[in-house]
Design a protein that fits this description.
The complex is a heterodimer of chains A (290) and B (99).
Chain A: H1 2-14, H2 22-44, H3 48-68, H4 72-98, H5 112-131, H6 134-137, H7 155-162, H8 167-188, H9 200-208, H10 255-268, H11 273-279, H12 283-289
Helix pairs in contact in A: 2-3, 3-4
Chain B: H1 4-23, H2 27-52, H3 56-86
The chains are: A mainly alpha (290), B mainly alpha (99).
Chain lengths: 290, 99
């Protein structure tokens, strides 16, 4: 009773002064029905991809409503995280998995749709009935100024709360996100190999039994002072280029051109800085030879 | 107009999402309906923050968003795994535990 009288006192104090401005009212009556239409469109459209697009509409409208209620950080997070990331993930999975399976109209449980509709209407009526008295009896405080970095709904005010009062919960969310990432990897991973994985020993034995073309692993690209890219060839002990280390995909490192270049560098002697750089430790050898 | 209209909108969206969960057969659409329910609760939290002039509600909405993102990853991965095993994303086909 006292709370009610307090509320009515507050109402009386505020008098005719509106907490919600005209612009916000207008915007609410534009974006609120749009959000509701998006939700209804999502459950009534049969094509799953269209459902996802209707839900995108709803989420964008909700983002605008957050912005209206002086929660700019949450508003933009809603648009970036929900419509940008989550819904795109949904569309991605839909395109992979659920695109063909339009909802069947066969009712597995008889009368389920009718019961669900009745439940929905009843549930909505219950919630609205509970909330309707607060249309007149709950006065609103003035919303926090979103441009005040300390108390506003921007990143500053939220960050202050998250890193002081809610720090433990914030760290728990870090653990939650790591677990979720691991779960995504584990659940979505598919092993394409047939048979059990070979151990290193079995692999070596299979190599020497002749099941593979080479006994050793293929040589990697060379690493020199002048470059460590795939285009750099590996040198064999006699200084010639190992042809297997050249990538077939990179046209500029075809063997003929590289061998010619190698010859040219060898013939030019120490006067070329490039020569020492390309040959690396071979410069002493070069000196002995001349 | 009072901020209570936001709460009414959120209640309606929640009811729509609940009906969608009950009615739709495609697992991914069911999942999207759950997202809609989470979003409507977020709208409620933001409205409470605005009505009370405090930021706590917004912090809670932020945490709901984080949890929803984690939930989406795990849920979609489960749906993909089921789709790979049963070649279907319909909740009616996932009945191995039924009998």
């Amino acid at each position: 009773m006292t709370s009610f009288s307090q509320a009515s006192m507050l109402l009386a104090q505020q008098g005719g002064q509106e907490v919600v401005g005209t612009g916000e009212t207008l915007a609410f009556w534009v974006f609120g029905p749009l959000a509701l239409a998006g939700g209804l469109g999502m459950i009534f459209v049969r094509n799953a991809v269209h459902s996802a697009l209707w839900l995108v509409l709803t989420m964008l409208c909700l983002g605008v409503l957050y912005l209206l209620q002086s929660a700019p950080f949450l508003g933009f997070t809603q648009i970036i995280v929900y419509t940008g990331a989550v819904m795109m993930l949904f569309l991605f999975v839909l395109m992979m998995a659920g695109r063909d399976s339009a909802d069947s109209m066969v009712e597995v449980l008889r009368g389920q749709r009718l019961l669900a509709a009745l439940f929905g209407v009843g549930f909505a009526a219950l919630l609205v009935g509970v909330l309707a008295p607060s249309l007149v009896s709950v006065p609103a405080e003035a919303p926090p100024n979103p441009y005040d970095p300390a108390t506003g709904g921007g990143a500053g005010g939220l960050g202050r709360l998250i890193f002081t009062e809610f720090l433990f919960a914030f760290e728990l969310t870090a653990a939650l996100l790591i677990v979720a990432a691991l779960a995504g990897i584990v659940l979505a991973y598919r092993d394409r190999r047939e048979g059990p994985k070979r151990s290193q020993r079995e692999l070596v034995e299979a190599r020497f039994r002749g099941e593979y073309k080479r006994r050793s692993p293929a040589p990697g690209p060379g690493v020199f002072a002048t470059g460590n890219s795939v285009a750099t060839p590996a040198l064999l002990p006699d200084g010639s280029i190992a042809p297997e280390s050249l990538s077939e995909l990179i046209e500029s490192t075809n063997t003929a051109r590289l061998i010619a270049e190698h010859e040219r560098v060898l013939g030019a002697g120490d006067s070329h800085d490039d020569a020492r750089a390309l040959l690396g430790g071979e410069s002493e050898q070069e000196g002995e030879r001349t | 107009m009072t901020p209570t209209y936001y709460l009414l909108l959120a209640a309606l969206l929640f009811a729509v999402g609940a009906v969608g969960v009950l009615v739709r057969r495609n697992a991914i659409v069911v999942f999207m309906c759950i997202e809609l329910m989470l979003n409507s609760v977020n709208l409620t939290l933001v409205t409470f923050a605005r009505v009370s002039g405090e930021l706590d509600g917004q912090v809670m909405a932020f945490f709901v968003m984080v949890v929803a993102a984690a939930e989406v990853v795990v849920g979609l991965a489960i749906i993909m795994a089921i789709f790979r095993a049963r070649r279907s994303a319909s909740v009616d086909d996932t009945n191995l535990l039924k009998y």
